Amino acid sequence: MSTDKGIASSLSGIRETETNQYGQESILEVKGLKKYFPVYSRILKRKMGWIKAVDGVSFKIRKGEIFGIVGESGCGKSTLGKTILGIYRPNDGSVVFKGETISTLPTKQARKIRMGLQYVYQDAGASLDPMWLIRRTLREPLVIHARLSKEEIDERIERVLAATGLKPEHLSRYPHEFSGGQQRRLGLARILCLNPSLVILDEPTSGLDVSVQATILKLFIELKHQFELTYIFISHNLTVVHMMCNRMAVMYAGKIVEMGETHNIFHHPIHPYTKVLLVAIPEVGKEMDQNLSLTGEPPNPENFPSGCRFWPRCGYKKEICETVEPVLKSDKDGRWLACHLNHMK
Amino acid sequence: MQRLLEIRDLTVHFYTDEGTVEAIDRCNIMISRGEVVGLIGESGCGKTTTARAVLGIIPSPPGKIVHGEIAFQGQDLLKMDRHQFNKHIRGRAITLIPQDPFNSLNPLFTIGTQIMDIMRWKFEPPEEDGETVGKNTKVLSKRHKQYYRDKIIKMLKQMQIPSPEQQLKKHPHELSGGQRQRVLIAMALLSNPSLIIADEPTTALDVTIEAQILQLLRQLVKEYEVSVLYITHDLGVANQICDRIFIMYAGQVMESAPTGSFFKSPLHPYTQKLLESLPKPSGEISDIPGEVPNLISPVPGCRFFPRCELANPRCKERRPQAEELFPDHWVTCFHPVKGGNRSISSTKFVD
Question: Is B341 on the interface with A (CB under 8 A)?
Fold first, then answer.
């Protein structure tokens, strides 16, 4: 236990002390990113409309930070992550990674740059090929991306295996032989082979038990230091985001509604949606809020309400909210907000 | 308080090709009338198997209840006649809210048809104008149908489902996850049960919807004076909805206490470790070293001992008895940890 406590205490406080150390050097910049999916009619397959999964999202990520993206399911978190990576081509806007606009580059060049930009999938088990030995799965990215000899490949795999807490004998096993926690480790090992600098973690702890979750989160922080990583942490689990992230963005219906330092947002949420989201988290040591002001459900992405997309559920709505869409603006403390109520003040 | 359900020494084994999986080992759980009891634990610890044993739906083979009794309103369910059990207990006195609202409704039938089906088979026909309306017959007369329909619509209104008349004509895919879960809760409540088993009913839902459903459940429990066995792995949810908590680990009940003292001053080393591993805003992370044991021929003693810091050889050999160390606070451990801010007078505690 003494060693565990040691690690825990050394990990605690990382966030506070390092927040000020980040330079202004941004590793990733997303400008007005839009991703729409067409909806076709049933028989004639005519275009009926668009699902606006990501609708004009902009933010910057500084080197070495953990940036959280939170929101309910269907708000466009994962689509945003995949569009940044280039799995989806954006309809509008750009993604600038290390000074290069990767969203408009031809596929071949973009692929090279994208080596440094990796994605860890939500369902760790399903993202490993069930018919392949782990050795083959871990080798594949190196064979595609890097021209290395067999020995060099083996050496790299050994190194990442050790870093992710796996053993060499695991190489000759199949994915189904691993537990949920180990499958996450494998997913991480696979991408770390390529020495990425930015890793997008899509719901990295969903479906894990609390005790396993703690182990995996600990691993993320250890790896971040060892490999000098920057994380985008996509999650709907707010308590985990609170613990892990320096900065965060709250998404609702394809747009960012609030963005800023995690600590500030949790202690002083301004946007009505962020407020209800924080009230709704069930937590140990918190009483159930009897007069929960939130009603209704997230809007249909095919047909968003006019004006602010949150107004049908908002407890503070004014007339202007129903007609005019609020713009994401920053105040002097570096807090970004898209809400008429705040802008009027 | 009057006991509604008493599970005593329940032991469930699964006979598989690899060997006998001792899924539940001498499990004791009590539920009083009108109480919400939380059964918490990590995945694979036997929460759902316990619930299935109560409902009599353990797949057999390979599963078998080898020992124990489940007393419901003074009757042992395990010794009960199957026909009587189906007619009066399962789906009537004890109902289930399933885990996954997306797969628990038949996609081919409308919501109305599915609820009506439940009414037809499980609803006690009331006395109306001196004559009995409806029996458990397959064909319902128009008048009975209308009577049932009114009941259903009243219930759906109570579930805060907007315009229930229209919803009845819809198929499950036309409803959102939250709405489907509300329909399932309505289905569980229609037969006026005395015990509802809720198997992780909010796991598949978002936080804001989850909060709404939990609030609704709380209201309904008060209104219908029904007991709930709430199965969850989310400690935060358990804290909000339960009056009393039982925690399981690898098929054994480790500790049980009223919710307040359970979270404030846990006594079992496992409970304490689990609460410590919750994410904290300070950024501090602590986990439980080791892994959940294999349940094929496990040790005869406490199953947490390989991961427990306070374990001694005795823990491996012998299973500790559940002891009531504080009023209503039971723990199954030879060396319980000093609890929170309570004054300890017993010498049983290890520093």
Answer: no
